[in-house]
């Protein structure tokens, strides 16, 4: 749980950092108005989140500030001269209708920013798709003049863009404030993918789908030009990073996320090719949320099935082990009982002297030329084997117990015991002295 | 007494036809974007539903369910014909604008479903009042939704221009209608739960004292 929270905060922090760099670029091109617009969006989102959570009797925690990243995404998809009121309404819509109605940040269905953008497209299409040229700075509360259509629109109409590669990379062409800085977006994509903040599968799938179709079904004079212009127009790169690859929405596994992204990319390119729609990738990503949900359900089912399979395997292993243990215990018990049943009754004195019992066994086996009592003496006591294969003289010596070795050993043992006792007495005396000194 | 009274008023507030039971929501979403549309729909719905249910209450209860439903539909269709003529007379152009949702009022849920499950299980007088308040519940939601949506989407009320700074034209569309009705349902449930809390409190106190 803690790890998840840490991950969520880390992702949010990384996203905010990349979004702020884009915002800095927007400030460079469009002045203070772009930054102020982002501030308005963030403040309204945070306020709306706070009110929604209070209405739902929940506390507003640091984790709920994730709404500000959605607010920045919204701000970066707008023209710098967008009406603040419209931006604020869009943010309120994103937080309430697209996020908290479905249960808040842990149960999101749509990307709130994408839903808000679609909402704005239906309500304020004219304001949303009219931009100022880069380096034309509008005052905070001034009405913008000399509005132009976006580079995406002119590419759609003419099939070419009159910008150099450097201008395209640096975002020096008309369009949404954050979606035109291609170089920064590529860097942001690399950082976010390597830090696992966005779904790599979804990003690669989406861009792959768009660029593949751009090459094979070109909109420009040559396939490479088509690929280049498709990459920089219609917010394809921006939406692929921040909307399609959003980890809260995209399937967890890269395999499924790839196909989810691929579908979105392919459909959005077809829409660009066949209709006059601008930025259809955002709308398509909202429309494909059922696909994301279906993939997620599939993942859950697979995980459940795997967990069940593992549990079953473990249970089967445990059962097999238990059965094996029980069998071995039964076998040992049976062996013991069989041996006990076959063994003759032994008195306490005989039991205390195993040699006498062995002697009995050996003598009887020798006499009958068959194992006595049905017991193979070699199996009972390993040393018995030695007794079985020793010479007759030795056996007699052993049986009588009057061997020279044993006599010698006994004398040695008594000597050893005496010396040990003496040593222990000396040690005890030394210890006592040491204790007294202490 | 209080229970019977509350059950009669249920269709208006506690068990609102649209917000609570989610019945007859399609005309509210699709056509409830202007007050003019709403007036025509309210008139047609009220007349068709009231007379259809009242006349249908005389249909013998012993008939099979399927047969009774067909008879109710036939009755409401017969009532629909004069209602349509009058609507065309007083609300010219509205019937064509509403389209398929206007004739669909003849087979709305109050007539087809609620008759058997609710109204015909009551006594005639109680049924009449309950039916009236159920219809009023629909009418109130329809008019309220239409006023707000027209104001926010087009900046007018009953086709008269109101000074609105920012218009949300998306609310005039069906998806805007869905979102707006969803928000209204949420608000209604919130208010009802707040009121229901008091009821539950009283009930629990009664239960304690009864025990």
**Spatial extent as radius of gyration of chain B:** 19 Å
Element order, helices and strands of chain A? HHHHHHHHHHHHHHHHHHHHH
Q: In percent terms, what proportion of residues of chain A is strand? A: under 5%
Shape estimate of chain B: globular
Counting H and I runs of at least 4 residues, what is the number of helices of chain A? 21
Could you tell me how far the N terminus lies from the C terminus of chain A, measured between alpha carbons in angstroms?
Answer: 59 Å
Shape of chain A: elongated
Counting copies of identical and different chains, the oligomeric state is heterodimer
The CATH topology of the largest domain in chain A comes to Ammonium transporter fold
Largest β-sheet summary of chain B? 2 strands, antiparallel
Largest sheet descriptor of chain A? none
Could you tell me the radius of gyration of chain A in angstroms? 43 Å
Mean pLDDT of chain A: 83
Could you give the distance between the termini of chain B? 23 Å
Count up the domains of chain A. Answer: 3
Write a structural description.
The complex is a heterodimer of chains A (438) and B (211). Helix content of chain A is 71%, strand content 0%. The mean pLDDT of chain A is 83. Chain A has 21 helices and no strands. The longest helix of chain A has 54 residues, at 289-342. Chain A folds into 3 domains: 2-287, Ammonium transporter fold (Orthogonal Bundle), CATH 1.10.3430; 312-349; 356-437. By secondary structure, chain B is an all-alpha fold. Chain B contains 8 helices and 2 strands; from the N terminus they run αααααααββα. In chain B, strands 1-2 form a two-stranded antiparallel ribbon. In chain B, α1 packs across α7 (124-154). The longest helix of chain B is centred in the C-terminal third of the chain and has 37 residues, at 174-210. Chain B is globular, with a radius of gyration of 19 Å. The chains are: A mainly alpha (438), B mainly alpha (211). The interface between A and B is medium-sized, with 12 and 15 residues.
């Amino acid at each position: 749980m803690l790890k998840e929270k840490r991950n969520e905060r880390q992702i949010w922090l990384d996203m905010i950092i990349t979004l702020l760099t884009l915002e800095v670029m927007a400030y460079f091109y469009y002045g203070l108005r772009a930054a102020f617009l982002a501030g308005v969006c963030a403040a309204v989102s945070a306020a709306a989140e706070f009110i929604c959570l209070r209405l739902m009797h929940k506390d507003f925690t640091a984790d709920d500030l994730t709404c500000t990243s959605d607010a920045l995404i919204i701000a970066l998809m707008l023209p710098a001269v967008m009406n603040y009121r419209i931006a604020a309404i869009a943010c309120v819509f994103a937080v309430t209708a697209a996020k908290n109605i479905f249960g808040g940040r842990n149960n999101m269905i749509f990307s709130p920013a994408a839903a808000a953008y679609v909402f704005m497209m239906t309500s304020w299409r004219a304001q949303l798709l009219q931009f100022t040229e880069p380096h034309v700075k509008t005052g905070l509360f001034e009405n913008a003049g000399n509005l132009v259509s976006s580079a995406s629109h002119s590419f759609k109409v003419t099939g070419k863009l009159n910008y150099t590669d450097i201008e395209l990379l640096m975002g020096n062409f008309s369009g949404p404030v954050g979606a035109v800085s291609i170089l920064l977006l590529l860097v942001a994509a690399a950082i976010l993918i390597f830090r696992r903040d966005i779904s790599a599968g979804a990003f690669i799938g989406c861009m792959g789908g768009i660029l593949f179709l751009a090459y094979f079904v070109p909109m420009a004079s040559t396939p490479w030009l088509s690929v280049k212009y498709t990459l920089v127009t219609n917010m394809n790169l921006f939406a692929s990073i921040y909307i399609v690859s959003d980890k809260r929405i995209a399937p967890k596994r890269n395999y499924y996320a790839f196909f989810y992204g691929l579908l979105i990319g392919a459909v959005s390119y077809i829409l660009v090719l066949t209709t006059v729609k601008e930025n259809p990738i955002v709308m398509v990503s909202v429309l494909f949320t059922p696909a994301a949900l279906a993939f997620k359900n599939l993942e859950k089912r697979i995980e459940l099935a795997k967990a069940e399979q593992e549990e079953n395997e473990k249970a089967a292993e445990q059962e097999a082990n238990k059965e094996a243990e029980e069998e071995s215990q039964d076998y040992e018990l049976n062996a013991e009982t069989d041996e006990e049943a076959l063994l003759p009754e032994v008195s306490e004195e005989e039991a205390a002297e195993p040699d006498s019992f062995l002697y009995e066994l050996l003598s009887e086996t020798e006499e009958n030329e068959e194992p006595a009592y049905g017991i193979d003496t070699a199996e009972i006591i390993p040393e018995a084997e030695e007794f079985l294969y020793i010479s007759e003289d030795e056996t007699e010596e052993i049986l009588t117990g009057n061997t020279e070795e044993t006599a010698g050993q006994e004398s040695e043992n008594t000597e050893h015991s005496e010396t040990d006792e003496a040593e222990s007495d000396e040690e005890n005396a030394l210890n006592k002295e040491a204790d007294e000194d202490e | 007494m209080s229970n019977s009274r509350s059950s009669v008023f249920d269709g208006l507030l506690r068990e609102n036809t649209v917000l609570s039971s989610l019945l007859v929501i399609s005309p509210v979403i699709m056509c409830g974007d202007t007050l003019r549309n709403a007036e025509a729909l309210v008139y047609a719905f009220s007349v068709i539903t009231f007379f259809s249910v009242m006349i249908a209450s005389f249909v013998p209860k012993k008939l099979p369910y399927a047969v009774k439903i067909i008879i109710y539909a036939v009755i409401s269709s017969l009532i629909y014909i004069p209602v349509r003529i009058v609507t065309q007379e007083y609300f010219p152009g509205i019937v064509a604008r509403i389209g398929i949702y206007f004739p669909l009022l003849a087979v709305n849920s109050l007539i087809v479903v609620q008759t058997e499950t609710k109204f015909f299980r009551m006594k005639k007088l109680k049924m009449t009042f309950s039916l009236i308040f159920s219809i009023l519940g629909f009418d109130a939601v329809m008019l309220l939704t239409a006023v707000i949506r027209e104001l926010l989407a087009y900046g007018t009320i009953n086709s008269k221009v109101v000074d609105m700074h920012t218009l949300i034209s998306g609310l005039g569309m069906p998806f805007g209608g869905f979102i707006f009705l969803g928000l209204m349902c949420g608000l209604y449930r919130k208010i009802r739960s707040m009121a229901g809390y008091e009821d539950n409190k009283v009930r629990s106190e009664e239960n304690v004292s009864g025990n």
